[in-house]
Amino acid sequence: MDGAQGTQGVQGTQGTIGIGVQGTPGQQGTQGVQGSQGLIGLQGIIGVQGLQGITGNQGLQGVQGIQGNQGSQGNQGLRGIQGIQGIQGSQGIRGIQGMQGRQGGSGTQGYQGNRGTQGFQGIQGQVGAQGRQGNQGNQGTQGRQGNVGGLGAQGLLGRQGAQGSQGNQGNIGSQGNQGTTGNQGSQGNQGNVGTQGPQNIAGTQGNQGNQGNQGALGIQGNQGTQGNQGNQGNQGRQGTQGAQGNQGTQGTQSDPGVQGNQGNQGTQGTQGFQGFQGFQGNLDGFTPSLNTTSPNTPIYASQLIATGASPSIDAVIQPKNTGAFLVNLADGTSTGGDKRGTNAVDLQSARTNSVQVASGSYSTIVGGRNNGAQGNYSTAMGYEAKAIYHGEIAFSAGSFSTPGDAQTMNLMYRGVTTNGSPVELHLDGSSLHASIPSDTTWTVECLVVARRTDTDGESAGYKMYFTMDRGSLVSSVALVGTVDKKIIGEDVNGWDINVTADTSIGGPLFQATGAVGSNINWVVSARIVQVTG
User: Fold this and answer.
1) Cα–Cα distance between 31 and 120 in angstroms, integer?
2) CA distance to 12, 358, 371, 529, per residue, from 366 (Å)
3) Every domain of the chain and the residues it spans
4) DSSP state for residue 406 in the 8-state scheme
5) Which residue of 36, 284, 372, 389 lies most exposed, with the fewest beta carbons within 10 A?
6) Pairing mode, if any, of strands 379-383 and 393-397?
7) Can you spell out the DSSP letters for 308-374?
8) Contact between 397 and 370 (Cβ < 8 Å)
């Protein structure tokens, strides 16, 4: 309760209003030390108001009293004991995890406790010494927390045993009363109202008085013990889980979908392969959804949509360090395939052999089926393409008997000449050649470009066709017919490019010839049609 305010002085009789210049405002008094807050004094009787005449100049304002000190805040009460959690049921054998359901609605919040009664305000008296501030009323007890809303149905969970019921959560204890606020210090006396000057002449305004010290704030009472927390709402029913059939051959695994609603748990059957774990909880920046309407039926579509304030948002799934990006978990079988290579990208989800993956370092499979990218920096696409060379791009639409026996490829050779002697060109620019597979024939179309790098204005272009065959042995490689070579353009006579069947590598050997004192970069793009049998 607030203390009584000091008695207000009797209002003086209003003088005759004059017209004149307003006096200079008086300086504000220095603020005094804040003292103990006193009780607010009783309000004095307001004097009889005289007749209002013409408004004159305002007189000097009195000094304002010193404001009292504010009391210290009381200690917070103890929090109530949380209820005992129920015993968790034994976990069943984990099967393929279903999609996570929508979260149930949050329970209604408990009512807030009544606020404590505010102390009575003292009768206003003279604006003399300011009384101490009254004790603040006790804060009402906090209302019980509302029951938590039922949890929404969760998507089909693979063969998990029934979970034990969760114990009720303890009620939140009532909040303790707030301690009383200390008395407010007495307010300084208000300065006398200045004498009203003659009509039309403005009197000078008096100096503002010193503010009274504010009284010390009373010790705040201990906060009451917090009551028990309200009971937690019943958990939504778990959907019935369908009976799990016998484990058969695992089919093509699709991208991990958004976890949907959990169905009712049914009888647990034979444990199947454990699938990918669905996304748990909220995904910042994404909104998951499950589409089960046409055309996405009977094969449903799980979707992650990038969300945010920006009009356009990139969607990123980023491996860590040298990890690969793939759509099937490697398991060493035809289902998931062998381990992928360093920073490889494997978007193929169907294979008949575990080696049909992007196993080369920095290799790529852009989709399709039964493709393999074993060469470093290689790319395979289509159906049963096989990329085994450094930087190879392989495409196939099928095979006669094994992947790669009917396909097209692109290989890049490069090298540098600095004199007039022939220099070998390589797949990696330093040492790697392409050895033709056993019992295979290549027909090759080459585009060759050369450019001098230590001066401008010297370049050349060539085109070559040839067919090369190899039996079971590396030494059996040979040209079929002759090489058809054409000069497309040449700034300097004497530059040249040639290819031979090299029996030490079992494949083509490209050699470029430049000129003395000339640094020349050479690049060969070889488009190859391959057949094996």
Assistant:
1) 28
2) 96, 10, 9, 20
3) 1-80+117-145+175-227, 320-404, 406-533
4) E
5) 284
6) parallel
7) SSSSS--------TT--EESS---SSTTT-SPP-TT-EE-----SSTT-S--STT-EE-S-BS-EE-
8) no
What is the predicted pLDDT for the residue at 153? 44
29 vs 186: CA distance, rounded Å: 17
Cα separation, 500 vs 512, in Å, equals: 12
> Which of 317 and 270 is assigned the larger pLDDT?
317
Say what the pLDDT of residue 1 is. Answer: 43
Closest CA to 347 of 315, 331, 325: 325
Cα gap 70→81, rounded to integer Å: 33
Q: State which amino acid sits at residue 211.
A: Q
Instruction: Determine the Cα angle at 175 with ends 174 and 178, to 5°.
Output: 145
Q: Which two three-digit tokens encode residue 311? A: 């009009």
Judge if pTM exceeds 0.70: no
Q: Per residue in 61-112, pLDDT tens? A: 555 555 556 555 555 545 545 545 545 545 545 544 445 545 545 555 544 5
At 245-268, the pLDDT tens digits run 455 555 555 455 555 566 566 556
| 329: CB partners within 8 A, 6+ apart | 253, 276, 336
How far apart CA 349 and CA 357 sit, in angstroms, is 9
First CA to last CA distance, the chain: 103
CATH number of this structure's domain 406-533: 2.60.40
Which residue spans within 418-505 are E strands per DSSP?
423-424, 440-452, 459-470, 478-479, 484-490, 496-502
Mean pLDDT of 202-229: 56
